[in-house]
Predict the 3D structure of the following.
Amino acid sequence: MFNTDIISKFKNIPTPFYYYDVEVLKQTLDLIKKESDKYGYIVHYATKANANNKILDSIRSYGLGADCVSGNEIKKAIECNFDPKHIVFAGVGKSDAEINIALDHSIFCFNCESLQEMEVINELALAKNKTANIALRINPNVNANTHKYITTGLEENKFGINLWELESVIESLKELKNLKLIGLHFHIGSQITDMSSFKSLCMRVNEIQSWFVSRKIIIENINVGGGWGVDYHEPDKNRFVDFAAYFKLYNDFLELRPGQKVHFELGRAVVAQCGALISKVLYIKKGVCTNFAILDAGMTELMRPALYQAYHKIENLKQYQNTRIKYQDVKYDVVGPICESSDCFGKAVNLPETSRGDFIAIRTAGAYGEVMSSSYNLRDRVKSIYSDDLK
Ligand SMILES: *Cc1c(COP(=O)(O)O)cnc(C)c1O
């Protein structure tokens, strides 16, 4: 991601900014393509992880579909030339206006999260004299063993239709003539690093499939969502997640009926490692028991640490310089300028002795970074720079 001349490349760019390594993204996409093609799997990119045009263009060029969670994401995907036949639309709270956008573009599938939602889609589809393809997002009650804020597949979460509701949902669906049931959808959470969670999901999907088969309901599409986590601690050593093992696990454990297609919705695993937030040190301040390195980037640019105590590796870019100077390691609390105590990127972080003006990189920030940025404190919206723009 970085080499010895990175500081001279960044020297004249105003900080903070997101830096995207286009090569890393392409290599990731190459891998996804190669490993998913082995089994004929269909991969959708979860647009919410990073919706920059250039990133979306690159992802589309590899033939991935788009998994959208809002009407504007659907519009954005279409603007970036994703084929509506490869767009799926999830979310617990789809508004009427958003549903209409999706209907107008005849997207591939609505992933439905409640009976009431299905009734509304049916009504809106009827008004347009259309039939909407739907998948039932089923809450499989599988624990993803990840942070509680990004766990979505437990009964206590707001997502999906619970198993005990299935019978009545299927019964009611018979009356909704402008809906066509084409799939089952699952998504148990994000930043999942424990493969056994996915194995449990496969087992649960198998049970649920048998339930449908016993009722003579044929489902063409099984969408197992996304959630495969990345290594925030060792972004260079483990730049690519083990897509081979990931797809193989589904091939090994998911029982398919003839002709069934399997869909995935990967977000973080596609874009996390290609991005870093680049910032400069404004001040070094001595506290009572710690030193603070105060950056010109804060939670307004990267909210994950403040939002769910997420860890990101922090580096002083002078460590990449080819000099004879040996810097001593010093511990810093690396914080932003925002008026919130949670505006902290890391506590007691070991960095080479750091001074005002040093470049700091916050790694693995390509997913759920720039998309969550805000203008709180009336800050400027963060900009982005791509490796192929730098000469
Ligand atoms: C967020 C989301 C994804 C992607 O999750 P990642 O952890 O980024 O892979 C997939 N499907 C749905 C329905 C989502 O909400």
